[in-house]
Amino acid sequence: MSEKPKRVALFVTCLVDMFRPEIGFAAVKLLEDAGCIVEAPAGQTCCGQPAYNSGDRADATAIARHNIALLAGFDYVVLPSGSCAGMIAKHYPLLFEDDPEMAGKARALAQRTFELTSFLVDVLGVEAVAGASHLGKVTYHDSCSGLRELGVKTQPRKLLGSVAGLTVSELAAPEECCGFGGTFCVKYPEISDRMVSDKAADATATGAAMVLGGDLGCLMNIAGKLKRQGSPIAVRHVAEVLAGGALVAPIGESGEE
Amino acid sequence: MHPTSHDFKANAHRAMRNEALQGALATLKKGFRAKRGIAVERLPEFEALRDAGRDMKNHVLAHLDHYLELFEAKVLAQGGHVHWARDAEEARRIVLDICRASNARTVTKGKSMVAEEIGLNAYLEKNGVRPVETDLGEYIIQLRDEPPSHIIAPAIHLNRGHVAQAFVKAHPQYPADRPLGEARELLDEAREVLRESFVTADLGITGANMMIAETGATIIVTNEGNGDLTQTLPRVHVVLTSIEKVVPTMEDATTVLRLLARSATGQEFAAYTTFSAGPRRAEDLDGPSEFHVVLLDNGRSNMLGGAFHDMLRCIRCAACINHCPIYGAIGGHAYGWVYPGPMGSVLTPALIGLEEAHDLPNASTLCGRCEAVCPMHIPLPRMLRHWREREFERHLQPGRVRLALKGWSWLVRHPTLYRLYTMAAVATLGMLGKRRGRFTSMPLAGGWTNTRDLPAPSARRGFMDQWATGRRR
User: Fold this and answer.
1) Residues B238, B205: contact at Cβ < 8 Å?
2) Which residues constitute the domain of residue A140?
3) Nearest residue of chain B to residue A218 (CA atoms)
């Protein structure tokens, strides 16, 4: 690449920061291997979805304002999450529709913001990654926001297709919501459980040894159900597998078990 | 109909334990979804049609008064009558007055969600008029005295056993031990019983999928042909519909028709698409001698120009319902009123109030599939969020939920404190969950841990903490 390296702000998301930092470091590796200069701006916290999806528009707007200032000045903003990327890319501009001063800034940020796998494939043109080898048969859950708001569908599959010794065995209903839905899963636990039970059954029926996806919230939900059922199926974020290197224990499992 | 939306959670709980319902929902997901997918696949211009449908409806809504008046003038010129009903009470009254004026004792009815919305059957019965539903699904639920559970398949929650039971009870003229195990047998019996009603009814009531302003015609789309018999055989035909269903021209109606059946059942066209325009003319072979259109508002004009304006584009195809994972888990009755699924969760609070229906806009993961399949591009998730905003403004959520949200939102805007708080939380949870990698119970998180394990943090220090001290990979 002869052009100037791209300066990328990695917004790891609150869940990755707290529950699975390895996803963040995997994203750093993937981005650096693709020639980017990666920074993780220190003031980052949460994208504001809990407030936004709970009807607290004032707080959601204030959080968006904070993040718009924080993330200005980078060539791109990349998130290892379709729903958080969708929040910035699709919903921040809606929050400032009636605010002429902020609307332009929100739109400018939105245009520079991408979900990790779509950034690698659609913007950087990455064709192949080293990846973790010989994982055998895996299956893939398409998280709703990434899929329907950002069109993330083929990108992770394309990258997984370049990983040696790995095949993707599709779910019967890969586009069906897993029932996470942010606060939905604790507000309506019974309905959420029904949905994630269906997802777990679908994953089990593929015969895959691993479920991959691009959003930690959904993956914690799916892993939580599978582990409660005593299932041996491992659950991981797709970035962990794409980045290769040593893998830590799957989501919801411990190396010490 | 008396709403039970305020009992949403209890309704949903019951629904998820109803085996017959769960079986029916599994079939619905396989059937309607797959068929729609194939139908859309086979029509290359489907996306362009969606755009055209949306644009046409937007134009109508911007000039709704104009097109309604055009429609009214055409109906009058053709010898029909038009009645304007502000609310459910007025609409019921108008229909009853027409029944009384024509001395109607038995009334046949085609499927009409607007009739469900205004609770017409119970009202007519109370006032000495016997309504007979002629759509098979509607007939079955009328016998069982229950509301529809789906807007195009009202008895989807029932199996053949339920239907046979209802028929044995309702049709004492047949031997009690007759075979009713097969769909064919049930169908034949319903047909025989309903035929009697068709020929004896004094008045027929249908809904309308559309009204055409340029011709003054109303359209019904059915698969059973019952609508045709309902509107052609009796002396009087009453079309009961709502104001947003008007379209300007025949060609616009065609746009909607091409979207409607594909989105609903995956058919290219429904089996019957029937136009009615005014009473029987001298040269007509059949038809009613009186033709009435009752146009219901019931809160719709208040939605014009507001946050829920786009909902008025809805053509009641049920694609959003068929693809909704929540509906797929709990069925229609749990929503507690006439319109279930995503379209219902937007419409119901507007029509019966947010206090009664406050659960509905929240009972969604905002997965977006409803908007993705809506033939009219209605931004349903966006409108569910609008309702949540109104609830938040009006403090309709539990105080502790509000407090937790507010606390988190405050913390998020104070990164230094946020970091300290999350570092402590990660260290504690990471330590406690280290051995198993997950928790099987967690104080205040029972909603999660009652049915699933909660994954523990994979490390004792979070990403930003490790990044700050120099780790890069």
Assistant:
1) yes
2) 136-243
3) B365
ipTM (interface predicted TM): 0.97
Inter-chain CB proximity B463 and A48 less than 8 Å: no
- The whole-number pLDDT of residue A133 equals 77
Is A257 part of a structural domain of the chain?
no
Picking from A123, A144, A166, the residue at the C-terminal end of a domain is A123
With respect to residue A253, please indicate whether it lies within any of the assigned structural domains.
no
In CATH, what number is assigned to the domain containing residue A14? 3.40.50
List pLDDT tens digits, range B180-233. Answer: 999 999 999 999 999 999 999 999 999 999 999 999 999 999 999 999 999 999
DSSP output for B128-155 = T-EEEE-SHHHHHHHHHT---SSSS-TT
CA distance B21 to A73: 55
Residue in chain B nearest A177 by alpha carbon: B367
Q: Mind telling me how many Å the CA of B9 is from chain A's nearest CA?
A: 8
- Which candidate from B388, B397, B467 shows the least CB-CB separation from A40? B467
To the nearest whole angstrom, how far is the Cα of A165 from the nearest Cα of chain B? 24
Q: Is residue A248 part of a domain?
A: no
Chain B CB contacts of A40 below 8 Å: 463-464, 467
Question: Domains along chain B?
Answer: 39-301 (3.40.50.10420), 406-468 (no CATH)
Same domain, A100 and A208: no
**Per-residue pLDDT for A1 more than 60?**
no
**Which of chain A's residues have a Cβ under 8 Å away from the Cβ of B448?**
185-186, 189, 224
Question: Is residue A173 in some structural domain?
Answer: yes
Residue B470 region by backbone torsions, left for phi larger than 0, else alpha for psi between -120 and 50, else beta: left
Report the amino acid identity of residue B384: L
pTM of the model: 0.96
Same domain, A26 and A62: yes
Choose among B37, B42, B206, B219: nearest CA to B138. Answer: B206
Measured between beta carbons, the chain B residues lying within 8 angstroms of A224 are 438, 448, 452-455
Interface check B448 vs A, CB under 8 A: yes
CB contact under 8 A, B406 and A195: no
**Judgement on whether residues A84 and A112 belong to the same structural domain of the protein:** yes
Domain end call among A69, A91, A123:
A123
| Residue B445 touches chain A, beta carbons under 8 Å | yes
Amino acid at position B278, single letter: G
Q: What SS3 state is found at A211? A: strand
B410: chain A residues, CB-CB within 8 Å = 59
> Nearest-CA residue of chain A relative to B30?
A173
Question: CA-to-CA distance for B78 and B278, rounded, in angstroms?
Answer: 5
Query: Are both A101 and A145 inside the same structural domain?
Result: no
Q: What is the pLDDT of residue B401?
A: 87
- Nearest residue in chain B measured CA to CA from A257: B436
Q: Structurally, how many domains does chain A consist of?
A: 2
